[in-house]
Amino acid sequence: MIDSLRHDLRFAVRSLLRSPGYALVAILCLGLGIAANVTVFTPVNRLRPVSAKPAGPDGSVGITFLDNSLLSAGPNSVLAVDRFAFDSTTHQGSFESSLRTGTLAVVSGKLAKQSPEAMKVKTPAAVLGVRGTEFLVRTGDPKKD
Length: 145
Hints:
Elements: H1 2-18, H2 20-47, E1 50-52, E2 61-64, E3 70-73, E4 78-86, E5 93-107, H3 110-114, E6 119-122, E7 127-129, E8 134-139
Parallel strand pairs: 5-6
Antiparallel strand pairs: 1-4, 2-3, 3-5, 4-5, 5-8, 6-7
């Protein structure tokens, strides 16, 4: 297998050296294609709402955001990130999430430290304003707990 890989690499290098114009055009096309893809899909991914539902009673999910905020949802939790906007230069923006059921542990990041009113967690019973700290939220049917 190593000999085959070595043979293929030698063949590729020899082919590129024989026709450097072709290699340059191919590399430029690949670069432009990747750049166009990133340019088109990066704003789309930022606008898309994020929701996480861990599978089953043993599931969990952890999310680290650009401002270094950490969200960890426990088993059978239903969490939605409704809005996240963050300017890494000024540390301004907003962060809104909703926990319908389950548990959520939060360690706020730069956003809440800069603008304490910018981070909110909604539950069926209340809206929590984060003030640059760590906290745990639990919501759901108290009869099942």
